[in-house]
Amino acid sequence: MSIIYRKTIGMVEKVIPKKCLPFWNHPAGPKTVFFWAPSFKWGLVIAGISDLTRPADKLSMPQTIALASSGFIWSRYSLIIIPKNVYLFSVNLFVGVTQLYQLARAFRYHQSLKDKDAKTT
């Protein structure tokens, strides 16, 4: 597979405009996993945004907490590693923020249930 990858990169590299070469050759650029892994991770952000239409009673608080905390932890990590990966930082920050918002929705829902129970007793 590495031979196929190198040949493909070599062919694509010939058509890259000169002004895009610094981005192309960057240690976290499109020739590396440091670019493609965050690109696919945007799917988590899209899923989190699509969950905004989901009723709050259907949200999983443990899953939301796990995604939010991992988003913020990996955001910090992406600025410490070499090469610094701002693209990875941005996707992890968005994962954390969307899940934090979902967590707030779920928490408000559970609080409203507790308030209803307190009023009925």
From TrEMBL:
Keywords from the named record: Membrane, Mitochondrion, Mitochondrion inner membrane, Transmembrane, Transmembrane helix, Transport
BP GO terms, sorted: pyruvate import into mitochondria
GO CC entries: mitochondrial inner membrane
Main localization (coarse): mitochondrion
Tree of life domain: Eukaryota
Family membership: Belongs to the mitochondrial pyruvate carrier (MPC) (TC 2.A.105) family.
Functional description taken from the UniProt entry: Mediates the uptake of pyruvate into mitochondria.
Protein name as annotated: Mitochondrial pyruvate carrier
Top-level taxonomy: Eukaryota, Metazoa, Ecdysozoa, Arthropoda, Hexapoda
